[in-house]
Write a structure and sequence with these properties.
mainly alpha
């Protein structure tokens, strides 16, 4: 990925992803499309802030977005609709 932070500790991205996944799971009262649009707006704001704070360059953001678009396009081409967003008929596991 084009926006790698060399100071990130090993496992930090996986831990962050786990926390984001846990949070997104709490948004099940919203339609998936609303969550996707809200996440898109949030990502736009985050990427702009990275540039404003000189944590990356505009070119790095453009490269990241192009890579993101490629990855999403590949994923969508191989997507099965019955696997999107889990099985809604199956009950959620109890919270711990």
């Amino acid at each position: 990925m084009s926006l790698q932070d060399p100071t990130t500790t090993e496992g930090a991205i996986e831990e962050c992803l786990d926390e984001i996944n846990d949070f997104v799971a709490t948004l099940d009262r919203y339609p998936p499309t609303a969550v996707a649009v809200a996440m898109s707006v949030h990502l736009q704001t985050l990427l702009s802030a990275l540039v404003e704070c000189d944590l990356c360059t505009p070119q790095q953001v453009r490269d990241f977005v192009q890579e993101f678009e490629r990855d999403v396009s590949e994923e969508v081409e191989h997507c099965r609709p019955d696997r999107l967003f889990g099985d809604r008929a199956r009950p959620k596991p109890p919270a711990l």
